[in-house]
Amino acid sequence: MNAASENMEFEKAAELRDQINSIDTIMTQQKMTSTDLTDKDVFGYTVDKGWMCVQAFFIRQGRMIQRDASIFPFYKEETDDFLTYVGQFYQKNEHFIPKEILIPSDIDKSSVEALLDTKVLQPQRGQKKKLVALANKNCPCEPERKTLISLNELKNGLSVQSKNWDKP
Question: Which residues does the UniProt record annotate as the domain UVR (predicted)?
Answer without folding.
Answer: 1-26
